[in-house]
């Protein structure tokens, strides 16, 4: 793995040295580095570029800025062939937003644990997380909020607290641990995406996407995969759906689903690079 870095805190990590180009897009927003484990696995078959999305700085962070940053990266590093975007969670949503803006620059899109684009599935997601909360959740949450003042550290601790609502049985994935979480970028980006969805831009603009698109989703992921699929398929009839048993939000980390997920993901990528 090699890395480029800039003074604003953004990074691009490069994995592997052969094969067609895959761009691995992290979730959050602001969860930089969370695709390291998947990038490692995919780099056995592909050349993987893993950008860390823009952090809070002098330029306002919003969905369009992330789209333009990704476009600049593709123009710079994918001059000989169009890449396939592999996005996780928020990264899957950004991949679709990018493809709606620049549909001719990519070969296909793989959505891993994709987020929600309509209020009905978003309500189901919230209800599922609520139902799975651990005992004494509110007390533990209150302690975090009272004792930890840094919002970015708060977000990481809150996710650790509620991780059982997202995951089944995770392996110890050392490749993406201990990376900073950027709360200001998370909030600014997500607020903007919510406004764009409420205003009707997404998912309506996904009708512009004509390349192959597939969802890879765990059956335990609180994001309701089949509901999200049925909603998105109205705008992208070419959309495919793969679901994995005993699998949460990050399939490449899941003990029981990892091998099946990696097999199906790599097979789909190879097929769509032909």
Description:
The protein has 274 residues and is an alpha/beta fold. The protein is 41% helix and 15% strand. The chain contains 9 helices and 8 strands. It is globular, with a radius of gyration of 18 Å. The protein starts with a strand and ends with a helix. The mean pLDDT is 91.
What's the quick description here?
It is built from nine helices and eight strands. The protein has helices spanning 36-42, 63-77, 90-101, 119-131, 137-147, 151-162, 183-198, 225-233, 258-273, and strands at residues 2-5, 11-15, 21-25, 47-52, 84-88, 108-112, 213-218, 240-244.
How far do the termini sit from each other? 26 Å
Query: What is Rg?
Result: 18 Å
**Number of helical elements:** 9
| The named CATH superfamily | Alpha/Beta hydrolase fold, catalytic domain
Give the strand line-up of the largest sheet.
1-2-4-3-5-6-7-8
Poorly predicted residue ranges? none
- According to CATH, the fold-level topology is Rossmann fold
Main beta sheet strand tally, sense and closure: 8 strands, mixed
Overall form? globular
The second-level CATH architecture is 3-Layer(aba) Sandwich
- Would you report the number of β strands? 8
Structural class: alpha/beta
The CATH top-level class label: Alpha Beta
Question: How confident is the prediction overall: mean pLDDT?
Answer: 91
Order of helices and strands: EEEHEHEHEHHHHEHEH
Strand content: 5-15%
Tally of domains: 1
How much helicity do the residues have?
40-55%
């Amino acid at each position: 793995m090699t890395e480029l870095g800039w003074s604003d805190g953004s990074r691009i990590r490069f994995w592997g040295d052969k094969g067609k180009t895959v761009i691995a897009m992290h979730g959050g927003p602001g969860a930089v580095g969370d695709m390291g484990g998947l990038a490692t696995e995919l780099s056995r078959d592909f050349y993987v570029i893993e950008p860390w999305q823009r952090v809070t700085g002098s330029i306002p962070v919003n969905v369009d800025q992330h789209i333009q940053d990704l476009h600049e990266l593709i123009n710079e590093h994918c001059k000989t062939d169009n890449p396939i975007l592999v996005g996780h969670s928020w990264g899957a949503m950004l991949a679709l937003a990018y493809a709606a803006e620049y549909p001719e620059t990519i070969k296909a899109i793989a959505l891993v644990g994709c987020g929600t684009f309509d209020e009905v599935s978003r309500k189901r997601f919230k209800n599922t997380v609520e139902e799975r909360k651990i005992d004494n959740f509110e007390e533990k949450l209150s302690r975090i909020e009272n004792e930890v003042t840094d919002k970015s550290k708060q977000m990481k601790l809150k996710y650790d607290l509620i991780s059982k609502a997202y995951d089944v049985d995770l392996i110890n994935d050392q490749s993406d641990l201990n990376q900073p979480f950027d709360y200001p970028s998370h909030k600014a980006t997500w607020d903007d995406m919510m406004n764009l969805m409420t205003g009707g831009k997404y998912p309506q603009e996904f009708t512009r996407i004509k390349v192959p698109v597939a969802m890879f989703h765990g059956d335990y992921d609180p994001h309701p995969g089949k509901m999200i699929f049925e909603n998105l398929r109205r705008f992208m009839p070419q959309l495919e759906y793969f679901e994995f048993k005993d699998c949460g939000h990050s399939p490449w980390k899941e003990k029981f689903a990892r091998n099946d997920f990696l097999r199906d993901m790599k097979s789909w990528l190879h097929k769509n690079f032909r």
